[in-house]
Amino acid sequence: MQEARTISQVLERLQRKGYVENFKACKNGMRVIPMNVFIDPEFLVVDEIFRFEGESDIDEEAIIFALRCPKNSLKGTYLVAFGPMMDAQDIAVVAHLHRKFENKG
Questions:
Q1: Residue 71 domain-assigned (yes or no)
Q2: Which among 11, 32, 60, 68 is least buried, having the fewest CB atoms inside 10 angstroms?
Q3: Vertex 52, ends 47 and 57: CA angle to 5°?
Q4: Does 56 score more than 70 pLDDT?
């Protein structure tokens, strides 16, 4: 994982690198917003992960995944709040994407 100063700086840098789509976890996997294209997380490649930890507030934790889908040439980001209030769909997707990143050797 790589660390950066702010979420907006990371998103801006990734956008300059072509990660222009926004991904969101949903019941069927991942949805590309606003296109309503659904992608199975198995088809996604995790290029980078950025984690942000709040110094005094656990609710300030977040993760950004830089994702691409070679199958349909999409590149984008998945920004998710991280912590005890995390949605069940996000928990499953984050765990899956994190394992893929660790195992890509």
A1: yes
A2: 60
A3: 155
A4: no
